Fold:
Amino acid sequence: MDTWAMAAKVRVKGGYIRVPLHLLPKARIGDYILIEKGVAVAIIKHPSENRSPKES
Structure:
């Protein structure tokens, strides 16, 4: 099995890195993901989606 078969090129602070997606088989283009120790571990909401209407 190719090590990078389940990997994605993701943007981090203006740059790009490759991270394994073994734990996120349903991740899609445009998703915001949590990366811990170089591995994508969770799909998260965009920070603007977490604000209440009063904060906008």
Notes: The chain has a mean pLDDT of 74. The longest strand covers residues 7-12. Residues 7-50 form one domain.
